[in-house]
């Protein structure tokens, strides 16, 4: 049976709000819609200078890493705030992949071999991404595509690896354990992504050499744990994205006139936006609950994360879809940033497990079995 | 001024329990003593059932008293008094009114009802036509009119009432707010049978009802501002409830799902999970709202909770009837009763389904609340309207 939830802090602390302001100020300056669009057009969306300031300057890359390993010793609550802001700006930085997923995998390994790499990640000097499909979900079977042919020769193909083109190091889950493989030692085939701000590549390893960081059992547990954190924190990115869409749309319908009235004075639109506001307010509670459950290692964290993912994916997609629709013609243009948000929202709804997958997890945790 | 802490309050609770052991004390006497000890609503002023303590500490008191087996004041039965009349009297009442009304209101000795809606004025409440005319000699008010959908009018001792005192003014300006004695001659309550078969609400006919001026709340003609305080509290009091995970309407459906595997279908499973997730998110949203209030950052989420609960209650109870298959064709009891209050869990699925339909109508319809969210939270332009400057008597009806 489900138990009563432990007390959960669903608000933002002052320190979290300060972190938010710092990240938002940086993104306002250096990651406006126009520059994101321009970069996305080149097929190389990442902005290394922006990453450097975010990761090293603000110290956002090391939030999840303990101080003794060179990090900030903060928690998932702070990382969630960073992701809200990144979602609000559809920022093309490898935060979710490097500072959350790869970092959590390395923390989960907790081995001497992993520590130096973890320091580099925390300082923001190295970008490291897990070589797993972006769609890999917590609770799903882990892939077994990469085999160790002996002598450190890793062989196999992994599809849909997010941010691989920005990575210095790939974390490879092979049958014999977890390996750190220099990105240069792998063949990367960029694919054309739906979400222009989070590039995807096929990673092909042909007897690639790497450093072994953990044995197979440890590695698999670490990856499973990282997927849980990643899914929980993705909800905050989705929240930030949805919030931008709502705010932007409300601003637009207030100033756009048709029929001698602001279109936002028509009740059909007012009610739609009021409903969307309700959904976004609810998504905030769900995302905060997930971040807090992860930060406090609450026993019900897997359920709380599944609830957040089952809920927030849909809200982000709906917010972006409403944003396009209520902007009318300009919402369909390439120049208006709405499409970047729609593409990110839709891709996010597949990342780290679909809402349907997470509902299935809810069914397990809440003991509501399928027929 | 010293800040009152949880420890202070717990000491007071112990003193109350020592002086009035729940086992040997009459329920009414215990509740009166609790009120006098300032432990009724701790954020109210001293002498009026409170101690001027932070509102957040009420839960500490409630939990300690519940653990000690103390009787409660049956908040479900006196919800209108607690949630609406009390905060309005506190905000607008004279000292005398506060002293006269708050104590028996809180102890439940006097039940309250709300005489606002009329056959011709529901969503457009300010259009109401019930008249209150001042008698020149006595200064008393003589009230004539009809109210409708008045919950608990049959159990109520007092009512909050709004009436028109100047038909020549635009509709919002000619209204005055009164406290009406339901036992007065001229007050006639007739049960109004509803969709569930029972009569929770009533029609109320007011014929020459005499209300002394001392029972006017707020200034003459300022009743709309007072009424807005009541309405705001009405909406917030719904979002303020604290429920455990899988509490509320989702509980009986989840239980039926677990206990009756033969009822399960794949289509229902998807809907159940969707609603389970939404109910959990609504619970968290309510919890976040509560934490915001405690941290002194009142957010606009309050008006949203009523909307969310109305929709969820309706969808979940609809699913429950379907899940029950053949049993869903049956109803537990159509007897025309006049209950004390709403009882969602004491009845069966069909009752829940039908009663939940009222959740999006009572206390402001969902359409009106969406307007409020759109205009006051999102800042979208108001509906164009042409009734603002017209005298009430010249409005079309
Ligand atoms: C169970 C229950 C208990 C109640 N208890 C009490 C009570 O104790 N005391 C009391 O005073 N009242 C009570 N009411 C009355 C309740 O407050 C009114 O029914 C409610 O405010 C709606 O008014 P109406 O019924 O006149 O509907 P109307 O205002 O006639 O509305 C009809 C429809 O039109 C829609 N509508 C109206 N105006 C607009 C608009 N501007 N934009 C869009 N749509 C609009 C409404 O949403 C509704 O769907 C109770 C009602 C119920 C169902």
From TrEMBL, chain A:
<dbReference type="Pfam" id="PF00441">
    <property type="entry name" value="Acyl-CoA_dh_1"/>
</dbReference>
<comment type="similarity">
    <text>Belongs to the acyl-CoA dehydrogenase family.</text>
</comment>
<keyword id="KW-0274">FAD</keyword>
<dbReference type="InterPro" id="IPR009100">
    <property type="entry name" value="AcylCoA_DH/oxidase_NM_dom_sf"/>
</dbReference>
<keyword id="KW-0285">Flavoprotein</keyword>
<dbReference type="InterPro" id="IPR036250">
    <property type="entry name" value="AcylCo_DH-like_C"/>
</dbReference>
<dbReference type="InterPro" id="IPR009075">
    <property type="entry name" value="AcylCo_DH/oxidase_C"/>
</dbReference>
<protein>
    <submittedName>
        <fullName>Acyl-CoA dehydrogenase</fullName>
    </submittedName>
</protein>
<dbReference type="Pfam" id="PF02771">
    <property type="entry name" value="Acyl-CoA_dh_N"/>
</dbReference>
<dbReference type="InterPro" id="IPR037069">
    <property type="entry name" value="AcylCoA_DH/ox_N_sf"/>
</dbReference>
<feature type="domain" description="Acyl-CoA dehydrogenase/oxidase C-terminal">
    <location>
        <begin position="225"/>
        <end position="364"/>
    </location>
</feature>
<dbReference type="InterPro" id="IPR013786">
    <property type="entry name" value="AcylCoA_DH/ox_N"/>
</dbReference>
<keyword id="KW-0560">Oxidoreductase</keyword>
<feature type="domain" description="Acyl-CoA dehydrogenase/oxidase N-terminal">
    <location>
        <begin position="13"/>
        <end position="124"/>
    </location>
</feature>
<dbReference type="GO" id="GO:0050660">
    <property type="term" value="F:flavin adenine dinucleotide binding"/>
</dbReference>
<dbReference type="GO" id="GO:0003995">
    <property type="term" value="F:acyl-CoA dehydrogenase activity"/>
</dbReference>
Automatic annotation (TrEMBL), chain B:
<dbReference type="InterPro" id="IPR037069">
    <property type="entry name" value="AcylCoA_DH/ox_N_sf"/>
</dbReference>
<dbReference type="InterPro" id="IPR009075">
    <property type="entry name" value="AcylCo_DH/oxidase_C"/>
</dbReference>
<dbReference type="InterPro" id="IPR052161">
    <property type="entry name" value="Mycobact_Acyl-CoA_DH"/>
</dbReference>
<keyword id="KW-0285">Flavoprotein</keyword>
<dbReference type="InterPro" id="IPR036250">
    <property type="entry name" value="AcylCo_DH-like_C"/>
</dbReference>
<protein>
    <submittedName>
        <fullName>Acyl-CoA dehydrogenase</fullName>
    </submittedName>
</protein>
<dbReference type="Pfam" id="PF02770">
    <property type="entry name" value="Acyl-CoA_dh_M"/>
</dbReference>
<keyword id="KW-0560">Oxidoreductase</keyword>
<dbReference type="Pfam" id="PF02771">
    <property type="entry name" value="Acyl-CoA_dh_N"/>
</dbReference>
<feature type="domain" description="Acyl-CoA dehydrogenase/oxidase C-terminal">
    <location>
        <begin position="221"/>
        <end position="378"/>
    </location>
</feature>
<dbReference type="Pfam" id="PF00441">
    <property type="entry name" value="Acyl-CoA_dh_1"/>
</dbReference>
<feature type="domain" description="Acyl-CoA oxidase/dehydrogenase middle">
    <location>
        <begin position="113"/>
        <end position="199"/>
    </location>
</feature>
<dbReference type="GO" id="GO:0050660">
    <property type="term" value="F:flavin adenine dinucleotide binding"/>
</dbReference>
<feature type="domain" description="Acyl-CoA dehydrogenase/oxidase N-terminal">
    <location>
        <begin position="30"/>
        <end position="109"/>
    </location>
</feature>
<dbReference type="InterPro" id="IPR009100">
    <property type="entry name" value="AcylCoA_DH/oxidase_NM_dom_sf"/>
</dbReference>
<dbReference type="InterPro" id="IPR046373">
    <property type="entry name" value="Acyl-CoA_Oxase/DH_mid-dom_sf"/>
</dbReference>
<dbReference type="GO" id="GO:0005886">
    <property type="term" value="C:plasma membrane"/>
</dbReference>
<keyword id="KW-0274">FAD</keyword>
<dbReference type="InterPro" id="IPR006091">
    <property type="entry name" value="Acyl-CoA_Oxase/DH_mid-dom"/>
</dbReference>
<dbReference type="GO" id="GO:0016627">
    <property type="term" value="F:oxidoreductase activity, acting on the CH-CH group of donors"/>
</dbReference>
<dbReference type="InterPro" id="IPR013786">
    <property type="entry name" value="AcylCoA_DH/ox_N"/>
</dbReference>
<comment type="similarity">
    <text>Belongs to the acyl-CoA dehydrogenase family.</text>
</comment>
